[in-house]
Amino acid sequence: MNAVTLDQLGWDEGWAHAFDALTAVDKTSELVPGRVVLEHNHVYRVLTRQGEQLAESAGRMKHRAEGRHQLPVVGDWVALRFDTGGARVHIREVLPRRTSFSRKAAGRGTEQQVLAANVDLVFIVFGLDNPVNARSIDRYLVVAKRSGATPVIVLNKADLVADPAAALEEAKAAAGSVPVHAVSSHAGWRLDTLEQYLSRGRTVALLGPSGVGKSSLVNRLVERELLPTGEVREWDARGRHTSVHRQLVVRERGGLIIDTPGMRELQLWETDAVSDTFEDLQAIAASCRFRDCRHESEPGCAVKAAVDAGLCEALRVESYLKLQREQEAMERKREERGQIEEKRQSKSVHRAMRQMTDERARRGGT
After folding, report:
1. N or C: which end of the chain has fewer CB within 10 A?
2. Higher local confidence (pLDDT), 28 or 88
3. What is the pLDDT of residues 113-148, one digit of tens each?
4. How far apart are CA 211 and CA 127, in angstroms?
5. Strand ranges for the chain from DSSP E
6. Residue of 144, 119, 116, 259 whose CA lies nearest to 202
7. How far apart are CA 101 and CA 160, in angstroms?
8. How far apart are CA 314 and CA 307, in angstroms?
9. Are 184 and 154 within 8 A, CB to CB?
10. How many C-beta neighbours within 10 Å does residue 239 have?
11. pLDDT grade, residue 264 (50/70/90)?
12. In whole angstroms, what is the distance from residue 111 CA to residue 100 CA?
């Protein structure tokens, strides 16, 4: 790619101040700022003033990290060290993130997975080859709003429905105050409505299920066939999942775009994320008779009364309660994991103390 400047990547005085604070601590070598644009098997592509560099995390960073979420991800600003001769590049530090998208990693564990960092806006993309799913919109909005980025709903494949305006209104009803746009990356229809969100140094991430056309949308916005796209399957007219890695792309017209693989599973991570999306229901719930009301069968429930009075939709309340239960279950698992880890560490300390005592006893008896 053509050479880029740091300000094209979003560098500003705030990042410069954070970088200077790191270099004041790490005086072992000269550090260089850069932004992670791709990660694959713990090897990173990083854009710097010196061009694109292949880098890996320094050993001390890996040792210090409490989990994978503390290692670099796409979108991170990092401090690099060039070894003598420039043969190898190591990431010494990750600058504090302004925003980050986290979910529970797929599987039964309770590990946090950071999807992308330092995102200003997020395009939550759905395909209109399927009916609008208000509950799926709720779930993605919970994650997006908690990240700190500004969400925008994008309904792709508008050319596949007879009445995109009706689908647009249905999605707007679920999205509340969040902007919603219907577009077609295939036909190039209404893509100009997304240009208002893209400007020099501003980072937009695309999130959404598999097969909704995120890579095709990225190619349209960067005006070149940069990312691979899948052919549409004839038997169900759905696109194939093509993105494998998260990748940050710099637009020549200004702005940065992070493409992400489609997600078949989006489980919540933050334990207080739901309230950010359902502020209207949170306000109603404040009038419930009991502070710990579950909004199910308790007397004096303001939420149930609001549903009966037609002030809020029953399906929206159902979505709210489902996400809230999922959030509570996640918190219990995290607490259990913390207790197990605490016991493990305690046993390790006691074992080490016994070994020291036994060793001293042996030495005293010789």
Report:
1. C
2. 88
3. 788 999 999 999 999 999 998 888 888 888 888 888
4. 8
5. 31-40, 43-48, 51-57, 77-82, 89-94, 100-104, 112-117, 121-127, 150-156, 180-182, 203-207, 247-250, 256-259
6. 119
7. 30
8. 6
9. no
10. 25
11. very low
12. 15
- Say whether 61 sits in a helix, a strand or coil: helix
80 φ/ψ angles, rounded to the nearest 5 degrees: -105, 150
- Give the per-residue pLDDT at 145: 80
Q: Residue 18: is it exposed, middle or buried by C-beta count within 10 angstroms (0-12/13-18/19+)?
A: middle
- How many other C-beta atoms can be found within 10 angstroms of the C-beta atom of residue 282? 14
| Residue carrying the six token digits 């190039």 | 188
Please, is 41 exposed, middle or buried when counting C-beta atoms within 10 Å of its C-beta (0-12, 13-18, 19+)?
Answer: exposed
d(CA 21, CA 223): 38
DSSP string, 266-303: -B---TT-HHHH-HHHHHHHTTSSSTT--SSS-TT-HH
Token digits of residue 190? 């209404």
Q: Which backbone phi and psi does 4 adopt, to 5 degrees? A: -125, 155
Of 31 and 328, which is predicted with more confidence?
Answer: 31
For CA atoms 265, 258, 74, 97, give the dihedral sign. negative
- Residue 206: left if φ>0, alpha if ψ -120 to 50, beta else—which one? beta
* Single pTM value for the model: 0.74
Q: Work out the angle at residue 217's Cα, subtended by the Cα atoms of residues 216 and 221, and round it to the nearest 5 degrees.
A: 120
